[in-house]
Amino acid sequence: MRTDMFGRISRRRFGQLAVAAGAGAVLASAGSRVRAAEPKRGGRLRIGASGANASESWDPASWGLSAIMNLAGFGCVYNNLVEIAPDGTLTPELAESFEPAEGGKVWRFNIRQGVTFSNGRTLAPADVVASLDHHRGEESKSAAKPIVAAITDLAVDGNAVVVTLDAANADFPYLLADYHLVIGAAGDDGKVDWDQRIGTGGYTVAEYAVGARALLARRADYWKSNAAWFDEVEILAIDDVAARMNGVMTGELDVIDRADIATVGRLADRSDLIVDEVTGTQHFTLPMFCDVAPFDNLDVRLALKLAIDREEMVQKILHGHGRIGNDHPIAPANRYFAADLPQRAYDPEQAKFHLKKAGMEGLTVDLHAADAAFQGAVDTAILYAEQAAKAGITINVIREPNDGFWSNVWTVKPFVTCFWQGRPTEDWMFTQVYASDAAWNDTHWKNPEFDKLLLAARAELDDAKRRGMYGEMQKLVSDDGGVIVPMYANYVSVRSATVQRGEHISSVSGLDGSKCGERWWFA
User: In 414-471, which ranges are E strands?
Assistant: First the structure.
């Protein structure tokens, strides 16, 4: 197979491989594309979702991998200023409209009037300020702090909130769709008491068991007349994928996320179930510390990238439910995905060339893996070790406990397995993980040229120029960065045929961007 010096194949060949890898996805989701009937109200939607979290809190600053908080809090109880629609467009939500000033350094959000919280109080701009301020400040430990760090001032101007940034950001409104940045009701002290669970969303919390279950009841006075169709939404946190699959197949559950990709194909002939599948932004990674030997050597990093067979990974780990990656985090679902960037291929001989150049022939490295990173992470590491052996590389797979993986292994050990949900915009993903000063820079990669492009692209309003900048940044991460991105994983869920949805399904995250409770309905 013809490749360039980095072992990359032509885009045409990549397209052929992508079609082959995605063929199962097209077939699996074919039934879901049948035009749905008009929405109607009623019934209890029972969701079985992965993400049980015994330490979860209703404070959105702490939200992470929690099924209850993502599907109940973000998806049903609260709203954001803006939302990303199923077709990927950014639409106003609690902000009726928004517009930039000073080239995107200042943003004015006109707050929707007539919206009420579940306690009957009317939404006001002060609630928006209090909710965003909750994630700001030196004392904040919010997971959303990096998103709002650029805000230098929040001001109320009549019925609007005016946000001033430290620099222009053409994508800033997208950031406010983040699931942490929901809007709550401010108290007399100007702060939000999140334990009260008072939101503007279509549902209220009727019952709640920490980390296990939430039962939500529809609000009759919800300000959206075309949403929140169910009378009730019940969310059950079920981490066991076999239990989730059994629940939907026996009719005990109406919807499940993260279906068992090894067996979901067997449901194709069942008329009572529908498999939804979409290529989103989630991707599996193998980050390595660029400031720790031997990963501080570019030729070693290139050798490790050339020693992985992405095609085999997609077929054996994802069972065809995904796309091959190209060692950067921007997915095909992203707006500025660099479709013309040559695809890196599996090339053991080229890997040997780079190892020899580095003076590290017969390289041995430890790879720390746990399935807590992603389903099949340990198998991925083992398969990678087999593939890398053909390049003369010995990869010792260190199996780590699932419990504590994200605190004791990720960002602690120099070469690990990892998962990223991805982000709707390129700037968002790059800023949080790949900028030199990124809070979650799990490769310790620092590239001044990349940082310069990041700032320039963020402020650039010309679409063509931004596309070129983001393409160059993807190339820099792929060719110089410390991350191996072998594959993008599809979102694969299963629902009863009695559950209907719209024509499009969100690629932002699973279960229609965690909004199935608001957007779907019973036939």
Answer: 418-420
Which sign, positive or negative, has the C-alpha torsion 329, 181, 67, 411? positive
Q: Which residues pair with 135 in a beta bridge?
A: none
Short-list 103, 47, 104, 98, CA closest to 72? 47
Mean pLDDT for the chain? 91
Alpha-carbon gap, residue 388 to 377, rounded angstroms: 16
CA dihedral 89, 92, 97, 102 (to 10 degrees): -60
Q: What is the largest CA-CA distance in the chain?
A: 70
**Is the pLDDT score of 427 beyond 60?**
yes
| pLDDT exceeds cutoff 50 at 29 | no
44-49 and 255-256 as β-strands: parallel, antiparallel, unpaired?
parallel
Q: Which residues contact 428 (CB under 8 A, 6 or more apart)?
A: 147, 171, 174, 175
- Of 50, 109, 37, 102, which is closest to residue 80 (Cα–Cα)? 109
The pair of three-digit structure tokens given for residue 94, joined into one six-digit string: 């609690």
pLDDT tens for each residue of 238-279: 999 999 999 999 999 999 999 999 999 999 889 999 999 998
The end-to-end CA distance of the chain, in Å, is 51
**Confidence tier at 437 by pLDDT (50, 70, 90):** very high
Contact, 240 vs 67, CB < 8 A? Answer: no
**509 or 123: which carries more pLDDT confidence?**
123
Phi, psi angle pair for 70, to nearest 5°: -70, -45
Contact 278, 21 (CB under 8 A): no
CB atoms within 10 A of CB 127: 25
Report the C-alpha gap between 276 and 259 in whole angstroms.
Answer: 10
Is residue 18 pLDDT above 60, yes or no? no
Q: Report the alpha-carbon distance of residue 359 to residue 355 in Å, rounded.
A: 6
Segment 45-67 shows an average pLDDT of 93
| Residue 74 banded pLDDT, cuts 50, 70, 90 | very high
Residue 292 in tokens? 């720790």
C-alpha span between 487 and 480 (Å, rounded): 18
From residue 17, give the alpha-carbon distance in Å to each of 11, 310, 416, 420, 512.
10, 10, 27, 23, 27
Question: Alpha-carbon distance 409 to 213, whole Å?
Answer: 29
